[in-house]
TrEMBL record:
The gene is ispD. HAMAP family: IspD (MF_00108). GO terms for molecular function: 2-C-methyl-D-erythritol 4-phosphate cytidylyltransferase activity. Its EC number is 2.7.7.60. Catalyzes the formation of 4-diphosphocytidyl-2-C-methyl-D-erythritol from CTP and 2-C-methyl-D-erythritol 4-phosphate (MEP). GO terms for biological process: isopentenyl diphosphate biosynthetic process, methylerythritol 4-phosphate pathway. Belongs to the IspD/TarI cytidylyltransferase family. IspD subfamily. The record marks R153, K207 as: Positions MEP for the nucleophilic attack. This is 2-C-methyl-D-erythritol 4-phosphate cytidylyltransferase.
Length: 223
């Protein structure tokens, strides 16, 4: 069964506020995105990688690949205005309706090989596999009246990527018009009335979003 990964890096990284989108910033001397692609190619034999980046960045990416002698084979496709559109563009590059596809944020370079592998195994059986982690802190819900209420944290999970699916099902799910409630691929999938399957993610699989995350990423890499 073919295994694909759509690595989405079509964003502009506004919250990072760096001179270039965060996916190209170096950690340990190499762009974040290259660490992420390397994780997938090392975790899964014969994986087919589809990289989604902004259309204007094709030249930059080619230059970075030359500069870092990055030779992992991958197909590059232009992103869209939203993450939903970028994922959809990536999925459109998959030539068949067979197989499995992991959708992963390019800015999550610390995903563990075991998480990637288990996501394909579970999605093969259940149709989907969504990486999540439990909360360590207490949690409260803010109300419109300005008050807050206690929530039982055992009922909550933080959602990460990879989010892995049977290709036929996720392609069908992405045929719908985009809704503001689609915060990730799991929400698009369950909009079809299908139940998502959760798997254990890894705590270090952070989404590099703000400058402090870059410092933490350097620390994780040195560890
Ligand atoms: N139009 C978009 C927007 C986001 N993404 C990707 O989705 C992932 C998660 O998004 P986020 O962390 O929000 O990235 P940005 O949109 O770049 O960041 P910001 O919201 O700070 O601008 C990132 O890998 C990002 O590149 C994408 O492929 N296409
Ligand atoms: C897909 C995601 O990383 C799961 O946690 C998250 O929903 C992306 O959110 P963002 O607002 O696009 O950063």
């Amino acid at each position: 069964m073919n295994k694909y990964a759509v690595i989405v890096a079509g964003g502009s990284g506004t919250r990072m506020g760096a001179p270039m989108p965060k996916q190209y910033l170096p950690i340990g001397g190499m762009p974040v995105l290259m660490h992420t692609l390397r994780k997938f190619v090392r975790a899964v034999f014969n994986i087919k990688l589809i990289l989604v980046i902004p259309a204007n960045d094709f030249e930059l990416w080619t230059e970075l690949c030359e500069q870092h002698q990055f030779q992992i084979p991958h197909q590059v496709v232009a992103g869209g205005k939203s993450r939903f559109q970028s994922v959809k563009n990536g999925l459109n590059m998959i030539p068949d309706h067979e197989g499995l596809v992991a959708i992963h944020d390019g800015v999550r370079p610390f995903v563990e090989a075991e998480v990637i592998q288990s996501s394909y195994e579970v999605a093969a059986k259940s149709g989907s596999a969504i990486a999540v982690v439990a909360l360590k802190d207490s949690i409260r819900k803010l109300q419109d009246d300005g008050k807050s209420v206690f929530q039982e944290r055992q009922y909550f999970r933080l959602v990460q990527t990879p989010q892995t699916f049977q290709v036929s099902k996720i392609k069908k799910a992405f045929e719908v018009p985009e809704l503001h409630t689609f915060t990730d691929d799991a929400t698009v999938y369950e909009h079809q009335g299908w139940q998502v399957e959760l798997i254990a993610g890894n705590l270090e699989n952070i989404k590099i979003t703000t400058p402090e995350d870059l410092e933490y990423a350097e620390f994780l890499l040195r560890k």
